[in-house]
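Narrative summary of target 7.
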Amino acid sequence: MSETLLMSPLTLRSGVIIKNRLLKSAMSEAMADAEHHPNERYEHLYKVFAQGGTGLVVTGNVMIDRTALGEPGNVVLDEHSDLDAFKRWAEAGTINQTALWMQLNHPGKQSPRFLSKTPVAPSAVPLQGRYRRFFNPPRALTLEEIKHLIKQFAYAAQRAKETGFSGVQIHAAHGYLISQFLSPRQNQRQDIYGGSEENRQRFLLDIYYAMREAVGPSFPIGVKLNSQDFEPDGFDETASLHVIQALDKAGIDLIEISGGNYEKPVMSTGQTSENDVFFLPFASKIRPHIKAPLVITGGFRSVDVMEA
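Modeled conformation, tokenized:
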């Protein structure tokens, strides 16, 4: 493997140094125990990831609300969690100078019907497409509930730091709750969290600021964000650039680019790839406009392509 680009360290704006340019992106493991705690299977898996030499490893979905799961077996980090279990997971996953970031998420309406009788969303807009029969129609969140969810995200970030994780990543892609707020198709609210582009960004930015207040300036916070949803009248590349610029101005440490949702699952098909690398054209387009490092999700199969 090249000793130049791929193995060169990356210094984040928080001052944290990632030992190389290799990142293991989040993949939902769905292996939690009955209480939604990580177990020895997580410890083993992430120890193997760390031993492999990757600089930054991002966990799969860790949900901030145990009443809102994306799938059975999700890990949950809230006030009922056993923090010792998370400490063991972090200890195993940070060997070999590996940075281990916890991905924090809420599914919104993308919670299966056998898990959520009435899921929540920015607006009462049912899921469409081939998967709609697996999800119940959602109800719109109240302002009080939105404020509570922001606090839950911040609480989880603080506990991730306390239990030994190296950073956190906000999951704002793939049609989950934050992604739903960003989309004019999914978010039809008429209050401060809906309507204008600025208002649709507010939920994500409020989560970031609440997290930053909870963890301090030197603990890395990243985000996973769609380049677009690939839906008519949905979240598009222009809106994505504006969100990215707002996050960059706010001080985000790392931005991972993806795309699609359960209605348009581009994140798993790679249909936007260029030379097999997903979302590269969009990342190249926005690179001159921001300072934060960018991560491209998926499609890398050779060292030559990675170096390029």
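The radius of gyration is 18 Å.
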